[in-house]
Write a structure and sequence with these properties.
Blueprint lengths: L5 H5 L6 H9 L3 H11 L3 H7 L21 H15 L13 E5 L3 H12 L3 E6 L7 H4 L8 H13 L3 E4 L9 H7 L2 E4 L18 E2 H10 L9 E5 L3 H12 L4 E5 L11 H9 L3 E3 L2 E9 L2 E15 L5 E5 L5 E4 L2 E4 L8 H4 L4 E2 L2 E2 L12 E3 L12 H21 L2
Parallel strand pairs: 1-2, 1-4, 2-3, 4-16, 5-13, 6-7, 6-13, 7-8
Antiparallel strand pairs: 9-10, 10-11, 10-12, 14-15
């Protein structure tokens, strides 16, 4: 019953939250799901992985005096109903004859492809992996989003008329010249690169955090969980890695971070969660080398740190304390220290900002007719699924306007 509801403003995709909740209260779950999907085609994923405590629920006017409305759980209820019933809530508009290529089937790419298909454009979605969904499929712990949820959303986008081509890698299986000659516009949803290298001796024995999560989601027989696991990093991905280790049998899990608790990039509620899981923390700790014997990890050699002046990130810069080296015993080390900037930006000679692809207000890159969105453009602010979905939606609007204007 809120007027000009603050939760709707706090949602990056601006879902009509009072509207979809009211429809649930009148047993109109179909209408509720449609209201959600009109603003966010990946409503099922976002209901599970959005930091609602920081966004819609954090802005709920009941939060000051009572518990906020459980917006995320209500959205999940409506979306689960729609997928369980197999509801087809949208029909594409009359075909325009215009063709668009979307590179990368992560949240931004799926959102953009779906929105363009709804407008009647013919969209081909290219994905280098064998499964679409991006981090929703491979990089978000199954505890938060089962792989079936991500793949159901991919299937819904395909039902809108989007042609999905998996196993097709940009700049390897096809080039930009082909895309420009064959399509009226191109949208890049290429995400980021590999986990950032630490540059320490013995790093080849450290496991990649995203691969650790992927193997746990896909049920890989290659996934081995140590008894004494050290996770390097203090973001949400690092917390996911620590959760996997703890819940799959590790006796001791320690998260190592070179700054203090105050500078952690993980959401506060995620930090509270992982502490309740029994995970330990070693703050102001910098890994310096992996201690191994006969190729097996035995410990992580570390140095104590002190915080100095602010660096380019605006956070205090960690400085090593002389003579403070110590060892953390470990039989498995996992790194989740962020991802490298998109390498395709330099290959395509696109203008960049701090290594990320630079786009205009309408998401167009320095190459006319080529747009981009998602993590690959997130030079400012925090990267998240819901922000990627909004990028895709807004870019689709700009691409549609371009196609209409060009006749």
């Amino acid at each position: 019953m809120c007027y000009d509801a603050p939760c709707t403003h706090a949602c990056p995709t601006h879902i009509d939250i009072p509207g979809f909740i009211k429809k649930i209260s009148t047993a109109n779950l179909r209408g509720s799901a449609r209201t959600i999907l009109e603003s966010n085609l990946l409503g099922a994923t976002c209901a599970r992985v959005c930091p609602v405590q920081e966004l819609c629920e954090g802005a709920c006017v009941l939060g000051a005096e009572h518990k906020p409305i459980a917006i995320g759980r209500l959205q999940r209820h409506a979306m689960d109903f729609a997928y369980k019933k197999g509801l087809a809530l949208f029909q594409p508009a009359k075909a325009t004859g215009k063709k668009v290529a979307v590179i990368g089937a992560g949240p931004a790419g799926l959102s953009c492809a779906g929105e363009l298909a709804k407008r009647g454009h013919h969209v081909t979605l290219f994905e280098k992996r064998n499964l679409a969904g991006g981090l929703s499929t491979f990089g978000i712990i199954g505890l938060r989003e089962p792989i079936e949820v991500a793949l159901a959303e991919v299937a819904m986008i395909e039902k809108l008329g989007v042609k999905l081509e998996t196993g097709k890698e940009f700049c390897k299986d096809f080039a930009m010249t082909f895309l420009q000659a064959s399509f009226g516009a191109v949208f890049l949803s290429i995400g980021l690169g590999a986990t950032t290298a630490l540059g320490i001796p013995g790093e080849e024995l450290i496991l990649d955090g995203l691969e650790y999560i992927e193997q746990s989601k896909l049920g890989s027989s290659n996934l081995v969980i140590g008894r004494n696991v050290v996770v390097i990093g203090a973001g949400n991905t690092a917390i996911d890695c620590a959760t996997i280790a703890k819940r799959l049998g590790a006796s001791l899990v320690t998260m190592v971070y070179r700054r203090s608790e105050k500078e952690m990039t993980a959401y506060a509620h995620e930090y509270d969660f992982i502490k309740r899981e029994g995970v330990r923390f070693s703050f102001l700790t910098q890994p310096v080398r992996v201690h191994a014997e006969n190729g097996s990890v035995k410990a992580l050699d570390c140095s104590r740190m002190a915080l100095g002046a602010a660096d380019a990130s605006g956070r205090p810069s960690p400085q090593p304390v002389p003579g403070s080296e110590f060892q953390l015993p470990a039989d498995q080390i996992v790194k989740a220290t962020g991802q490298e900037k998109p390498s395709l930006a330099s290959l395509l000679k696109l203008k960049t900002e701090r290594g990320f692809i630079q786009v205009s207000a309408n998401f167009e890159t320095s190459l006319p007719g080529v747009y981009a969105g998602g993590d690959c453009i997130r030079a400012r602010g925090s990267a998240s699924t819901v922000m990627a979905v909004q990028d895709g939606k807004l870019a689709a609007r700009s691409i549609h306007e371009r196609l209409v204007a060009h006749g």
